[in-house]
Specification:
The protein starts with 14 loop residues before the first helix and ends with a helix. By secondary structure, the chain is of the alpha+beta class. It has one domain. 37% of the residues lie in helices and 16% in strands. The chain has a 3-stranded mixed β-sheet with strand order 2-1-3, covered by helices on one side. Helix 3 packs across helix 4 and helix 4 crosses helix 5.
C-alpha cells in the first residue's frame, strides 16, 4: 500500500502491520461504522467510515450497526494507513474524510467539535 505524504513526513506506525493481517482486513470489510481512536486519549474518536445505507431513512429501524474502533497514533502515519485501507477494502468513496483530516481532528478535538 503506497501512501503519498503532502504534509511533513510522519514516521511509520504500527497500523501498517495490522493492515497486512487478513483477519484485520475482514474486520474492516464487515464494519458499517469505523472509528479512529487516539491511542493517547481513547475518548477522542473520529468517524472514518459510515456505511451510506445507515443514513437511509428506510434503514433507520432498531437494527444495530457493526462498529469497529481502531487505535490510531496520530504522531505516525496510522491515520493515512487507515484511510487508505478503508478505500481499498470498502471502495473509493469509503473514507468520509481525507485521512490527513483524521490526524488533524485527533490533534485538535476542540476545533472538530466546534465545526459540527
Amino acid at each position: 500500500m503506497s501512501i503519498g505524504h503532502e504534509l511533513p513526513f510522519l514516521p511509520r506506525g504500527l497500523l501498517r502491520v495490522r493492515a497486512a493481517n487478513p483477519e484485520f482486513q475482514q474486520l474492516i470489510r464487515n464494519a458499517e461504522i469505523i472509528l479512529a481512536a487516539d491511542v493517547r486519549n481513547p475518548r477522542n474518536t473520529w468517524v472514518v467510515f459510515l456505511d451510506p445505507r445507515l443514513q437511509n431513512d428506510d434503514c433507520q429501524n432498531e437494527r444495530t450497526a457493526e462498529i469497529l474502533t481502531v487505535p490510531v497514533d496520530y504522531e505516525t502515519d496510522d491515520a493515512e494507513v487507515l484511510g487508505e485501507l478503508c478505500k481499498m477494502l470498502k471502495g473509493p468513496a469509503a473514507s468520509i474524510d481525507d485521512p490527513r483530516s483524521i490526524s488533524t481532528g485527533l490533534r485538535n478535538p476542540e476545533s472538530v467539535l466546534a465545526s459540527k
